[in-house]
Amino acid sequence: HVHDGLGFVRVAAIEALAQLAERGDEKAIEIAARLVEDGDWNVRGAALRALCSLAHRNDASVMQVVARCMEDRRSEVRQAAVETMSHLAARGNRNAFKLVSKCLEDGEALVRKMAVQAMVQLTERGDEAALSFLRKRLKDADVGVRLAAVQAVVALSEKGDRLSIDAILVRLEDVVGDVRRAVLHVICHQAGKGDQRIMEAVARLMEDGVGDVRRAAVQAITQLADQDDQVALNAVAPRLEHQVPVVRVTAVEAVALLAGSSGGRPKEMIVSRLKDTHVSVRCAAVEALVHVVHQGDAGTINLTCELHNDTDACVR
């Protein structure tokens, strides 16, 4: 049936062969290798997936077959070839690395994305050659490629790698919110605690127009700083006076999470918002007080008693 006149039958046949044959079966590998030249691109893709299941790691002859498919006229086949190569080649295989790195410049975004993901499978952490290629993909025109590149750079970089940190931080200005959020989720894994430049960059995202990004910024800055960290509090402080109420709410929430057991400055920052002009900020400040005051704090009790007369029922 691998020679049937209908393409979908040939696809089914090669898929069945991949399931039934044992890994290393030379006859099955030979059949799959021939079918990567089939006139139907669906069959070529199925044949590549079959080779992934049938061939042993670092099989040079099979890898040559797969390498030719990386130049296929159909992007779907090139994508399948890159994925197959990432599974067939052992980590550290420099020939596979060179072949996949060329696909990072492919004209189709899905092929570039697959190549980015494959680089993580093929190289060791700290591989500067791979990281150099991947940092360039952080500026890719396609958002999916940029997202994959953020994850890949973090996966391969050593903690504290300044080149990678700087490249990732640039994406905090990305036009797509999902990319900005992805950077916020991973930056704490790369940067050490207490880095003023990074905390200030993260704090700026508390003003973001996308709610998920603002929330991610709060989580990131609390992971980048210890409790009562003055650098972090300094970075957050200007947002307590921001003209947009939701930004002030975000800042209050961040201060509450940064507050230590001593109260002190975090308490003062939150108390300053108890008389905010916007009800959502006052509510956030009331809820945040529990994180920054000790039980029996007379001054805070008096302040909250005054709020019983607030004009808004939610605050009361």
TrEMBL record:
GO molecular function: oxidoreductase activity
Coiled coil: none
InterPro entries registered for this protein in UniProt: ARM-like, ARM-type_fold, Cohesin_HEAT, PBS_lyase_HEAT
Pfam families to which the protein is assigned, alphabetical: Cohesin_HEAT (PF12765), HEAT_2 (PF13646)
Matching SMART domains: EZ_HEAT
Domain of life: Eukaryota
Listed name of the protein: HEAT repeat domain-containing protein
